[in-house]
Amino acid sequence: MHQYKILNSKEIRSITRTLEEHYGIKNLRLDYGFLINKENKIYLVNRDFSKIDLEGLKINSIGLYFAEYRKGFVRLSIEGSQIIGKFATKNIISVNEEELNDWVTGKDLVYGEADFEGFVIIKSNNDFFGCGRYKEGAIFNYISKDRRIKTLTSSAEVE
Question: pLDDT tens, 109-130?
């Protein structure tokens, strides 16, 4: 387990405070254990994780990839945006179907001037699709190539 560090309550509070301030969330409570790796990627685990004896186990990864934490900012993963998004009151962008299709296929979005700062959560209807960085009228996409899809199929086309 040497590649992961278990974060203490002070470190977790620093992360949740950053999320609260940036996304306009009041009293964010995440009932998980937090692990961080050498690349500053944060993973969430069940709090009972500490009861497991990991000695001698070969483990490739642990928990749910939640976010990346660097220099006082938190860049949420897709799953992180789904956990946090329902509580967010600012720095959240609602996109239409065409923009969503561009987003999930890995394209940056042209958004124009807006009152956003830094990282924004991408939302369509009641679903959350990750986090991008807003700068000078564009939202930069961070969806990794292996998580992108070729095209979005609307529910109307499936029926």
Answer: 998 888 888 999 999 999 999 9
Distance between alpha carbon 18 and the CA centroid of its chain, in Å?
13
Q: Are strands 118-124 and 92-94 parallel, antiparallel or unpaired?
A: parallel
> What are the tens digits of pLDDT across the range 90-102?
999 999 999 999 9
pTM here?
Answer: 0.86
- Ramachandran angles phi, psi of 4, nearest 5°: -120, 145
* Structural domains present in the chain: 4-149 (3.10.450.720)
The string of DSSP codes covering 14-30 is HHHHHHHHHHT-SS---
The type of residue at 88 is A
